[in-house]
Amino acid sequence: MTPVEIEKLRVGLKKRRAELKRQKDNLLKVVMKSGDPPEFVIVKAEEIQAQLDGLRRDEEQLESQLTQARMLPSRDEIIEKFQGAAEQILAMERSSGAVLEQLLKGPIRAVPCQQFGRNKVVLRAEMTLLLSEIRIQGIELHSAGREEVPINPKIFQKDVVVDLFEPSIAPRYAMSALNYYNLNSDHRPTLEEIGSYLGISKRGAHLALQMGKELRRQGLSDPFVPLTEAPENASRRRPQQTA
């Protein structure tokens, strides 16, 4: 998930925690007034506390994910670096190979994938980037939030997957719709609420949530499954017939 998506989930958890805390405070008032509260009040208070503990763990996990997501370059930042490097490479001849070797570790791999639940086959590109603040033959690459290039920069690797296609609504938002749907088990959001959260239509939210649930049942989190052999009845683009 992106930092924006994680932040939205955090906001939802905070709202839920505030509501549970309000319910807990109301129960405490009942206990204080009665002195000998009914058994169901005690049970309800324990249930609320258990939910609060679960929310706290979820918030800690999201905080960790958010920190990690902010440390890694975004897709737009990676694309921007490639575009800048490409402009330099186009003006180079002998040195272009050295520049590419600095940006990539190993080759760019083309990976055919099949969309979950359909016979549609698409293509992805997989690559390993070497990221840091470095100067390479006139190309200056800066990581976010830094202005000076260190003398001995720390280089780290980042595996990147780039879709060489435009995914439709359902696979694009499947897991985001499911995560938002499961955010609060006591109050499931409506399709209108899911659509508003994701910025898509009610119909799109329905399709995305259905696919997300089916992916979860199959133990998957990615609607595009890498192929190891040619699938049966794979959809292919047919060439146009000429007169």
Main structural class = alpha+beta
In percent, how much strand structure appears in the residues? 5-15%
N to C succession of SSEs: HHHHEEEEEHHHE
Q: What does the overall shape look like?
A: elongated
Question: How would you sum up this structure, described in words?
Answer:
This protein has helices spanning 3-34, 39-71, 75-90, 96-103, 169-181, 191-198, 202-217; strands at residues 109-115, 121-131, 134-136, 139-141, 156-163, 224-226. By secondary structure, it is of the alpha+beta class. It folds into 3 domains: 3-71; 75-163, no CATH class; 169-226. A hairpin with a 5-residue loop joins strand 1 and strand 2. The radius of gyration is 25 Å and the shape is elongated. The two termini are 49 Å apart. Residues 134-150 and 237-243 have low confidence and may be disordered.
List keywords for this structure.
243 residues, alpha+beta, 3 domains, 4-stranded antiparallel sheet, two-stranded antiparallel ribbon, 7 helices, 6 strands, disordered C terminus, coiled coil
Task: Provide a short characterization of the protein structure.
With 243 residues, the protein is α+β, with helices and mostly antiparallel strands. The protein has helices at 3-34, 39-71, 75-90, 96-103, 169-181, 191-198, 202-217; strands at 109-115, 121-131, 134-136, 139-141, 156-163, 224-226.
Topology:
Elements: H1 3-34, H2 39-71, H3 75-90, H4 96-103, E1 109-115, E2 121-131, E3 134-136, E4 139-141, E5 156-163, H5 169-181, H6 191-198, H7 202-217, E6 224-226
Antiparallel strand pairs: 1-2, 1-6, 2-5, 3-4
